[in-house]
Amino acid sequence: MRKFFIYILYVLSDAVCSLAISSNIYEVLKGIKLLNTYYTISLNHNSTNKCASYCLADNTCVSVNYNFVTKQCQLSTKSPLDESTDVVEDNEWKVLFSKKDLPPNSWELIFRGTAGTGVKLYDSFVGTVSLPAHEVGCYLPVTHNLTCTTHYRDPILDIWSTQSILKVKVAMYKDNVMVMNMVFNNTYNGLNTDWYSKDQLIYSSYTDMITVGITYNFFSIKGDEPIERRFYINKNYGGCDVDVGWIAVFDSGPTCSYEFGLQYPAFAYMPNNVMGQWDLKAFQLADALAIYIQK
Q1: Could you read off the pLDDT of 35-64 as tens digits, one per residue?
Q2: What dihedral angle (degrees, nearest 10) is formed by the CA atoms of 110, 115, 116, 118?
Q3: What global pTM score does this model have?
Q4: Structural domains of the chain, with CATH
Q5: Nearest CA to 153 among 295, 294, 250, 289?
Q6: Are 220 and 196 in contact (CB under 8 A)?
Q7: What backbone phi and psi angles, to 5 degrees, belong to 144?
Q8: What does the longest C-alpha to C-alpha distance in the chain come to?
Q9: Is the backbone peptide bond immediately before 265 cis, with ω within 30 degrees of 0?
């Protein structure tokens, strides 16, 4: 029955094959392949559009693999943007997908920072510095464990106030494993930095961050601007030896002894889900910082 259905799609696909790419229904990511596939079609000529049209005509299909060497077309029920999808790097393949096919309430990656690149994270986020071309892995969830050697910034950050964004999530990763995360409401219809505040925080993996009566001397993306501690959530100063906080992006330095030897930008977080004293080197360093939105 499946083969008959695929045959019917093949007969009808010429009517929709040019629609799939030309109308921007599908985006294309080169150099990766999804492992979660359920049917393979061998095409007799090189046609990305033809492959995409099969997915477009099958209600169970979310994305497709296309091999431009063997001309194989593989249908998948998964999106490469879904953290549960198995993705590998392979230069013979490319994936066609649509963001509209993500499951309800999914998190969409809009920014990813890579530690130690020498490019300031804050300037990259607010768009005051031009970023080099990024690998396809930078565009996808960190848990996919794909190559990413620079920062990635989605243009949606430039039209933030025009988008219907409900929530924003910030997470840090070490060895492709999430080590902390926070979720914020996006009730301000303003700058793309306004949501990062204690008033908008609705969840934190830090159990003491949302304790009633807790105070902060910094809680913002801009952070401590003169010394470039960004995405900074800190409880108190009083001399470097008594600084206490939760997370920080060190874009430059050092100012205090606990910043000596860092490769910038450095993504510092306190482990064990509670605040810590910076001078005791209680913090650890993450490899990546990711920001997601939910619409």
Answers
A1: 999 999 999 877 888 899 999 899 999 999
A2: 30
A3: 0.89
A4: 2-101 (3.50.4.10), 107-295 (no CATH)
A5: 289
A6: yes
A7: -70, -20
A8: 74
A9: yes
